[in-house]
C-alpha cells in the first residue's frame, strides 16, 4: 500500500464524525482508506469475542444483514470472530460498513482479513488514529480503538462476549455516551456468553433480531429484501453437519440426533444456531427440514 492510498481527516474535515467531539481524548486526526463519506451515515456497532461459537458467528452475520438492509452502516473492529462476520454480513446485504483498526493504515490485522478489508473499502471505509508504521496489537490499543467505535454508533449490539472482554468495554463506553446497548441472549453455562448475561441483568435490551433494534431506534429506511438467504454455517461445525443431511421432505429429528457423532452440547448448539439463522423449520411429527433449499 502506498502513502497516497489513504486520506487524513481532521476535525476540520467535512467527513469528520461530529459525535467524536464527545469522546474522551478525541483523536487529532485519523487515516482513512476507502470512502470517508460513509462516516456521515447513521451507524450501529456489532461487537463480540474473537473466539466465537458457530451460533454467535451465524447470529452476527444475520443481524448485520438485517440492519444493513434497514439503511444502517455497520461498524466494528475488523477482528476475527464476531467483528469479521458483522462486516461480512453488511457486505452480503449490499450495505455499507466501517472498520476501526488498531494499527497503522498500511497494515491489516489480522492478516487473513486482507480480502475482507478490500471489500470493506469498496463499500465503506477503514480508519485508524495510528500513523503509518504503527504495528499495534498491544493491550492498550484496543480500548482506545473501542472508544471510537462506541462514539461512531447510535447503539452497540453485543452478540457474544465473555465477562472480561473488549466488547463489554465498548458497551460501557456507549452507555457513558448515552447510546443504546443491546445484548443477544446465550447459553447460561457457556463462558463466551457470560458478558451478554451480565449486560442483560444490568438492563441492556434483549436483541434476537433487527425488530428489537427498530423498537428503540427507527431504521433510516424501510427494511429491504436483499434476495439473499442466510449464510451456510462453517464446514466442520455441528450446524453444518445437520443442515447437510436435511432434505425438503424432512428428516426425523431423533433419527438425525442418533446419527450425530459428537457430544450432546455441540448438537444443541448447532441446532440453535440454525434456528436463530432461520435456516431450518420444524415439521409435524418431529421432523426437520431446511427453510431455504440450496443445491
Quick take:
The protein is α/β, with parallel strands linked by helices and 295 residues long. It is built from 10 helices and 12 strands.
Count of discrete domains: 2
The helicity comes to: 25-40%
The name CATH uses for the topology of the largest domain is Rossmann fold
| Structure summary, number of beta strands | 12
* Overall pLDDT score: 87
How would you describe what is shown here?
There is one protein chain. With 295 residues, this protein is an alpha/beta fold. The protein has 2 domains: 3-214, Rossmann fold (3-Layer(aba) Sandwich); 238-290, Winged helix-like DNA-binding domain superfamily/Winged helix DNA-binding domain (Arc Repressor Mutant, subunit A), CATH 1.10.10. It is built from 10 helices and 12 strands. A 9-stranded mixed beta sheet has the order 1-2-6-5-4-3-7-8-9, sandwiched between helices. Strands 10-12-11 form a 3-stranded antiparallel beta sheet. α1 (54-68) packs parallel to α2 (82-92) and α1 runs parallel beside α10 (264-276). The chain is elongated. It starts with 6 loop residues before the first strand and ends in a 5-residue tail after the last strand.
